[in-house]
Specification:
CATH architecture of the largest domain: Sandwich
Mean pLDDT: 83
Largest sheet: 6 strands, antiparallel, barrel
Distance between the termini: 102 Å
Shape: rod-shaped
Structural class: alpha+beta
Number of domains: 2
CATH class of the largest domain: Mainly Beta
Oligomer: single chain
Length: 311
């Protein structure tokens, strides 16, 4: 009986000591501090190389596809402090066609932290964070310093938008502020473009008025455009070949129809270029000079106004 009381007394004496040891162990585990204590503004430590993109779609930097494939998000870890803890990053790449519709969105994840003075300590910290994120997981040592931007198929003159934000999964319960870095690029492509247009021309000047022709109110043109090397937009001046002075696309006859070569100043595209308007390239309108070759009539030079649509 005396022995039992003695053991119980020892147990009660050791119990607070055990609890204290557990608290110390917990404190030791938190020296690595897996919980984010501070979300550092991304401008402080996140960048992109080798070419920094534009801040919006209008200022997107045009690069060849091979150049875009070498874009890298880098982390300036010297700008982080140990007490900042790990920084969890989400990289979203949105690929948009020239017409404006999104055709792919790619998401990547990474984390980084302040540089350690001793390489072995840094490797140990990486392993600790990897185990916390995914038990028995693996984290690439290189991704702590930089992440290659992943891109699939790229559309000619499409826009590549790269957003870098704190990863919501690890920061949604944190006291935080909005932090984001965004860059815009444009994929260079072919400098020439062909489009089919139906148009309504109106003759302003005819060099052969004496040889009168009953011009119809329709025209069909295959137009050749030269594209700007930085934006991929069409230059306002273009050339075309097709039918003119007809009533229907196949109505070429001695009653007025014929064939033309057209030099066209597209006022719609001119407004888009000079005033940053967003009018659709499916529509055109402007002034044209056309050598005209009618059936059973003398060839002539016409000056016209035209509006048109590309189906």
């Amino acid at each position: 009986m005396v022995l039992k009381i003695t053991l119980l007394s020892i147990g009660f004496f050791l119990c607070p000591l055990t609890l204290q040891t557990q608290r110390l162990a917990t404190s030791e585990e938190q020296k690595g501090e897996f919980v984010i204590r501070q979300i550092v503004p991304l401008e402080k430590f996140v960048g992109i190389t080798p070419v920094e993109g534009g801040l919006n779609e209008k200022s997107a930097v045009a690069l060849e596809k091979s150049e875009l494939s070498h874009l890298v998000i880098n982390f300036r870890r010297d700008n982080l402090r140990e007490e900042d803890g790990p920084q969890f990053i989400k990289i979203t790449t949105t690929l948009t066609k020239r017409e404006g519709n999104v055709y792919d969105k790619i998401t990547q994840y990474a984390f980084t932290f302040a540089k350690e003075a001793i390489p072995d300590s840094e490797d140990a910290r990486i392993r600790m964070y990897a185990q916390k994120i995914v038990p028995f997981g693996f984290v690439s040592r290189r991704k702590i310093d930089s992440v290659d931007v992943h891109l699939d198929s790229l559309s000619d003159w499409g826009v590549v938008k790269i957003d870098v934000t704190p990863d919501e999964e690890y920061t949604k319960y944190s006291r935080r502020f909005q932090s984001c870095r965004t860059w815009y690029y444009r994929t260079k492509g072919n400098r020439w473009e062909i489009a089919f247009f139906l148009g309504i021309p109106k003759v302003l000047y005819d060099t052969e008025k004496r040889d009168s022709v009953a011009y119809g109110n329709a025209s069909v043109m295959l137009r050749l455009f030269f594209l700007d090397g930085e934006t991929g937009s069409r230059y306002p001046l273009n050339i075309g070949i097709g039918t003119f002075g007809i009533s229907t696309p196949i109505d070429v006859s001695k009653n007025g129809g014929g064939f033309v070569i057209s030099l066209f100043l597209d006022v719609v595209q001119l407004l888009n270029t000079n005033f940053n308007l967003d009018l659709s390239s499916r529509f055109n309108g402007g002034l044209e000079v056309t050598p005209f070759f009618p059936i059973d009539h003398r060839a002539r030079l016409l000056v016209n106004v035209r509006i048109g649509i590309s189906p």
